[in-house]
Design brief:
about 70 residues, mainly alpha, about 75% helix, 4 helices
């Protein structure tokens, strides 16, 4: 698991993730999505638009359910 954590930490510093964070999206939500994607696919976001799409979808789900993502 530790390797996965280090990989997620490294991914959080990637230009793709940094660009999304600079847009003002919630850091914890972005980090959660980066971690989920890595755990599910073994790879990280390579496109700003893919990450933004997932962040917006997660925010919409949060609005509809009234609960934040874990």
């Amino acid at each position: 698991v530790l390797g996965g954590q280090n990989s997620v930490a490294a991914a959080m510093l990637s230009p793709v993730v940094q660009a999304v964070l600079q847009m003002g999206f919630q850091h914890s939500l972005v980090e959660s999505l980066v971690q989920s994607r890595y755990l599910l696919t073994g790879s990280h976001y390579t496109s700003v638009s893919d990450l933004v799409t997932d962040v917006l979808q997660a925010e919409e789900e949060e609005r509809q359910t009234g609960e934040p993502r874990p």
